[in-house]
Amino acid sequence: MNITITPLGAADVPRLAEILRETVAAGGSVHFMDPVPEGAAEAYWAGAVADPGRIVLGAFVAGRLEGTVTLWLDTPPNQPFRGEIWKLMVAPAMRGKGLARALMIEAEGLAAARGRTLLNLDTATEGGASELYESMGWTRAGVIPDYAFKPQGGLVGTAIYWKRLGRV
Asked: Distance (Å, rounded) from C-alpha 18 to C-alpha 34?
């Protein structure tokens, strides 16, 4: 499968919103409840792609946007070497095809190219991407129990991960 990873912009907001709604409906814990309120996903992504402190990447298959991840670089002045990974999502119909791994590889490369030597992220302890992150060399720092509501209700913990890309 040919996967193309590229930064996204305003024209991609409708498909990003669709992927977010599909992810939440499938149980993905990405800050929204199911069903996602009308316009909320579009508003979130419009702000995200316009934010100069974030790089929103998209994974395209046959010209169609099928996955996304955000590299957050707007860190405090005492942490210019750090970045965060946010909102890794792949359209449910396209999962298991290497898109998430390709997105993570690109995000890590962009972070390193921008002088970031440490990344962190969090993921739900149920249905999250822990297995993927650990297979890519991320280290689990710990778990916070009952961290958020699952999209359809009930509490879920979050696992905190970090990865060193180099030294300061």
From this structure: 13
Q: Give how far the C-alpha of residue 67 lies from the chain's centroid of Cα atoms, to the nearest Å.
A: 9
Whole-prediction pTM = 0.97
pLDDT digits (tens, 9 = 90+) for 111-166: 999 999 999 999 999 998 999 999 999 999 999 999 999 999 999 999 999 999 99
- Residue in this structure with the two tokens 């997105």, named with its chain if needed: 103
Contacts for 84 with CB less than 8 Å, ≥ 6 apart: 71, 72, 75, 119, 120, 121
Residues 91/61, Cβ–Cβ less than 8 Å = no
What architecture does CATH give domain 3-164?
3-Layer(aba) Sandwich (3.40)
Q: How far apart are CA 12 and CA 15, in angstroms?
A: 6
